[in-house]
Write a structure and sequence with these properties.
Alpha-Beta Plaits, Arc Repressor Mutant, subunit A, 14 strands, 3 domains, five-stranded antiparallel β-sheet, 309 residues, CBASS_pafABC_assoc_protein
Amino acid sequence: MKFQVMIKILFTLLKRRKVSAAALAAENGVSERSIRRYLDELTICGIPIDIIRGRYGGICLPDTFRLPENFFTKEEYAAAVNALGAFYEQMRDEAAAGALEKLQSQQKSEQKNLTLSGNVLVDSGTWGDVYDFSEKLRVCERATEENDCLDLLYIDRGGAESRRIVEPHLLVYKQNVWYVYAFCRKRQDFRLFRVARIKSARVTGEKFEKRAFDRESIPLKFTFEKTELTDVRFSVTKKALPDLEEWLGIDHIKISGEEILAEATLPAGEVLLSKILSFGNDLRVLSPSMLADEVKARAEKICRQYDSK
């Protein structure tokens, strides 16, 4: 009985995405206390259930959630589809019908990891992506096209978690990072939301009208707003050249015989230091000397960390 109720709760959430504890209790003939206990167990199993308090709240499953690719084997998948189909024929349970539809549509879209926009084809997946990032980007893209308000659970750089109702107007791709440019109702202003920092996204069911905005005013230079810029000069090995070209662009690189030099103006700080260290001994900082000293000090610190073991 317990596991049957838990599966039915999951199917109901897959179909409706938001439902109240009272409705789940009534549909399954158990108490709300039992429902909350089952929800806790589903959460432990890895289902990202979100409970929203307040007048428009409820028990939610983000639109970014889908069953993992390897959740079923091919045989298990076929058996599950057949079982759900037979169950629906006998009981006419709409939750089962919704779950069946989602399982079937998931199989059709498993290979659709590419975002197509006009004549531009972009693979939105990341290395090791198990659809999490791709699904978030797909939900944001669809909401932008269809003028759907999104309920975002967002985590900022400081680790603070907040819930935002936003009106997505534009997808922004900058320095290999995806952002959503959206009007934030909490801040009553446009904001850039980094897709990778969206913990969950759910279409609220409310439509919005696109607001007028100037594309020139989009803060695409946000990376440098509060960061000091520094002129750097590197010497790199031939082995590191491809990675350096992808980082700085070929216009910043000069090849003279066996010598490969690069010059660029970059934001100083931890990000630059980490990037330089990622090249190992294939990149040497020629200037400024202060940056070279920082790299040397950090490398020595790393060595001491391993020497102590």
